[in-house]
Design brief:
2 copies of one chain form a homodimer. Chain A is built from 10 helices and 15 strands. Chain A is of the alpha/beta class.
């Protein structure tokens, strides 16, 4: 039987008492079946809910987060004290309008903000799972979310959305539970992780594992963490989230707090200082082993492979309406990858709209102030809601 | 007075007795003046020479190597026992034909294959320079090469060429010594390192410095080396040298020696295995501190900044003929950056040919079997040689 509990944080001292979100703990008799063949029990899903579920329970929008995201899509993040990762998109009067919709954002399985992941205590040993945690997949994440929705008594989702890995979850939702998904907005994503993206992730993982403080994954036992390795992994990732044009515009070759080159190895250039900041702040809110597990889940994602290599078969029988969105300067999840999704969904007979949004801000554009993105999401949701008689 | 000496290797046990190349050692009275304001003396330049200098001393082609290259452009590399990095381009009957031209390829200042760099003994302390080595620039590399040419009695260079950082050196040669350079073939390069490229380099440097065995740069004293950090840096670099298309074609999502995903963190995918191999073999032939210094030199490179921000002023007065070459899929040194060079050289009144070569192999294309590249280089050199009456 599911019960509501306080979410667990890997570093509880960093999280203020308030705004910890909600959590469901599934007991020993409610295991999560995993693609690797193992089961996970008990387990917790931490989530945030915004807005109100209507009487017909028909106004749920499921927001799925990306690699470095969490359940705090909107409002103040309890660890960073900064706005949630989709503050521009989710909230009262925002494109995903919490005055109108009931927005659910769960932390993924394998994560580190309260949902069970490698930093949690393994009940079998009384120690953190570390690398004994099973390697999870995007399908496992979605399977766990379906259990959460069951527990919350939500049968149908008006729209499932997310960017990057969030988009992968949206696609998996349609494939795994087509009857539950009225509409889907996969953004800046792919139906399979490409070789280049696997390569960048692999380097990030090697950087973490190369840190002497990683200690075979058992760093929590020793009260240390592989901060430098995780920071390097984050820096690599961060470069790939931006476009060359955005980096040139934001930083170019501008120097940081100096008039001339230092002829040293400190951060002479603003872009170096910026990256170092990104790396060092990330380690305060993210668990290194979670980074390994979540990147692995993305690498493993290949939706067509689940359906005999035919992506359109993944959407067979679905009556889901799709809005597929990409950004011109996103070289990590380029338009071509997003178009493959739209084409496959159309081939499966679903109603699909596809839009490539002009932006020079790279993959990160899905998190930023992009009026064309907002307008497209708002109009699509208006249309879907109208179809379903949602005021 | 300059004297010929055996080159020094940071890991002499790895270098076979044969094929060590040549070296000039400049004495205490022949300092190299550096951009940082310091001088370096004594210092050694290791180099390889291929072909024969003609009686008129007019057939020299200066080949400048890239970040991870060295003087072994052609023939067997003494450490790796594999072909030199430009084996396809340099040799008897090759586009840079050593039956016809005298090819000189020096190891750069800051390098680790015999030219003085951070792994060499600092005569002032009797210990390896490590981070006491001055931060050098591409202009310093070229200044040292000019001293080598003086020492060898070579006044004029028929053509200076190189890809990536080699192309930066070629541009600097024209700017610093226009009267000595008959022609230049900068390939897949830029007149200034972009923010994105600085960012990738910075992450590589942080990976090296994060390795516990880096020890503030003093690893050689302790008989260790930051192999894991250097391997991560190399892996990052290697991804950027390839195109997404090349990675997709070569590897895609193919698995390595297995039929199914392992649900672990070993190299499931071929692209992971390939990258790990690239990283682990690199550390056997490259010094980690050299990697810091040479990447820094590239980051600092901004030729226009030496001339009041006007790139064409860098080539003012030069009568050098240019052949500028880029590759369609090179996203590290894209065509637009190479075109800026050609435009500036043309604005300075030089004779410039520019060609973008269609290739899906990314930045690395300049090292690979690219018939259009070979034909362009051969034809250009034929034309330059004919003008100068070289048979």
């Amino acid at each position: 039987m599911a019960e509501t509990v306080e979410p667990l944080f890997p570093r509880p001292l960093l999280a203020p008492e308030a705004a910890r979100g909600s959590a469901f703990r599934f007991g020993a008799s409610e295991p999560l079946t995993l693609d690797c063949g193992r089961t996970l029990a008990p387990f917790t899903i931490a989530y945030m809910a915004y807005g109100k579920l209507n009487a017909a329970r028909s106004n749920t929008i499921l927001v799925c987060h990306a690699l470095s995201g969490d359940q705090f899509a909107s409002g103040m993040h309890p660890v960073t004290s900064r706005p949630g990762w989709w503050e521009t998109m989710v909230g009262p009067g925002k494109p995903i309008d919490t005055n109108r919709y009931f927005v659910l954002c769960p932390n993924v399985i394998g994560g580190c903000m309260g949902t069970t992941g490698p930093a949690e205590i393994d009940p079998a040993t009384g120690k953190p799972y570390a690398l004994d945690f099973p390697v999870v997949t995007v399908r496992d994440m979605v399977r766990a979310q379906a259990m959460l929705l069951d527990a919350l008594g939500i049968e149908k989702v008006l729209s499932v959305t997310g960017g990057s890995m969030g988009g992968m979850q949206a696609l998996q939702w349609v494939a795994s539970y087509p009857e539950r998904i009225v509409s889907a907005m996969p953004i800046a994503t792919s139906a399979r992780h490409t070789a280049q993206n696997i390569a960048f992730h692999e380097v990030g993982r090697r950087a973490i594992m190369a840190d002497a403080d990683w200690r075979g994954g058992n760093y929590l036992l020793d009260g240390v963490q592989p901060s430098q390795g995780l920071a390097v992994a984050r820096m690599i990732g961060h470069i790939t989230y931006l476009s060359e044009a955005a980096l040139a515009r934001k930083f170019g070759r501008a120097l940081q707090d100096r008039d001339a080159l230092s002829f040293g190895f400190g951060p002479d250039f603003q872009v170096e200082s910026y990256l170092q900041h990104q790396g060092s702040t990330f380690v305060n809110r993210f668990d290194a082993n979670s980074y390994l597990y979540i990147t692995r889940a993305m690498d493993y994602f290949d939706l067509a492979a689940q359906y005999g290599g035919d992506l359109s078969a993944a959407f067979a029988g679905a009556r889901t309406r799709f809005l597929c969105l990409s950004f011109t300067s996103d070289w990590l999840f380029p338009t071509a990858e997003n178009r493959l999704i739209a084409d496959a969904a159309a081939a499966a007979g679903t109603e699909v709209a596809f839009r490539e949004i002009a932006s020079d801000r790279g993959h990160d554009a899905f998190l930023l102030d992009e009026p064309e993105l907002f307008a497209a999401v708002r109009a699509f949701l208006d249309s879907v809601a109208a179809e379903r008689g949602i005021v």
